[in-house]
Amino acid sequence: MSEAVENTQEWVREIGQRELFFLMNMVEHNGIAGFSDPYSGYLIDELEDEWAKIRGQLLERELLMADGDDLAIEPVLEAFLAVLDSSYAVRLELKRGGKTVYDAYLHLLPQMVVERVQTDSGDGEGNHAIRLSAIASLELSLPLIEQVFPAEAAAQGTIKQPFTLPVEVYDSLMSGSETEGAKALDPGLSPDAKALKSLMEQADFQGRMTLMQRSGPVWRQQVMTCGIGEDGGWIARRDEEQGVRVENYRRGKLGQAVRALVQDVLAKSKEDGGGDGHDENQN
Questions:
Q1: Which domain holds residue 89?
Q2: Which of 68, 94, 202, 270 has its CA 20 to 30 A from that of 44?
Q3: Do 212 and 137 fall within a single domain?
Q4: Which residue from 224, 222, 219 is spatially nearest to 36, judged by alpha carbons?
């Protein structure tokens, strides 16, 4: 968890991916951003056996408690589950020197934000451990989100004017391994696109911010990436249909995207108490 956010152990829970899936089904969730079904491919009888095993583990750890003939979820974890069911989330991915230093989902409600991080621990059977941490409010989560907005690069103007690249080409440049499709397009890259490739190769910092909103069963995403090195930086907004719009790095561009999301969360909360997001394409 970032130093920008302090939490006591009272508001931190570590739970396995399968245990979390079990509990979310208990409360009939609408879908967690970036969370896949850990039981995909299981047969019904296998799933019944697994369900009994998971229930026993949760009872033993007192994350689940018997309440007569019913089961009750531990109060702090129950509050976390309500936030995880939010229609809004942000995924933050940060790299320094080519190494990932932070990768987490923030699930957003005005009154609480939950940071979800997959840890390296687990039971060795694909049941990865997930750390859930509470942040007291949406406003207090902003310093954590702003990790992806470093100070302005010392050198500016490397990219002379904004341009658009095909998604495949941009992704191949970001990964550093050009695909056949990208190689075929490379001779036609503009001077600015070639300058971008050079910036990517020497960037010390790279960030990706994915703004996510649930519309019915579908998660709509708006992806913004950026990078900064000695020669300057870039920022890119991704649209699967129109391509990736690239320009010189400006911290304000990323800030505008976050402010718009925060305002949407607050407005939606006033309208319906934080229910499912309206059908609005953010891309």
A1: 12-147
A2: 68
A3: no
A4: 219
According to DSSP, the residues that pair with 104 across neighbouring strands are 92
Residue 168 near residue 177 (C-beta atoms within 8 A): no
1 near 133, Cβ under 8 Å?
yes
Alpha-carbon gap, residue 281 to 283, rounded angstroms: 6
Q: How does DSSP classify residue 240? A: T
Same-domain status, 194 and 95 = no
Supply the DSSP symbol for 96: E
**Are residues 213 and 110 located together in one domain of the fold?**
no
Here the tokens at position 197 are 């490739």
The predicted-structure confidence for 73-88, as pLDDT tens digits, reads as follows: 999 999 999 999 999 9
Contact 211, 174 (CB under 8 A): no
pLDDT tens digits for 131-183? 999 998 888 888 888 888 887 665 566 788 899 998 888 988 887 755 554 45
- pLDDT mean over 212-221: 88
Task: Report the run of H or E that residue 271 belongs to, with start and end.
Answer: helix 251-272
Closest C-alpha to 144, from 183, 201, 182, 102: 102
Domain finish residue from 147, 165, 183: 147
What pLDDT, on the 0 to 100 scale, is given for residue 106? 96
Alpha helices, DSSP H only, in 3-111?
17-26, 44-60, 75-84
Residue closest to 34 by CA, chosen among 211, 227, 277: 211
Asked, for residue 239, whether it belongs to a domain, the answer is: yes
Q: Up-side HSE of residue 149: CA atoms within 13 Å toward CB?
A: 14
What is d(CA 237, CA 250) in angstroms, rounded to the nearest whole number? 12
CA-nearest of 219, 6, 13 to 116 is: 13
Say how far apart CA 24 and CA 38 lie, in whole Å.
12
Provide the phi-psi class of 143: left if phi over 0, else alpha when psi is between -120 and 50, else beta.
Answer: alpha
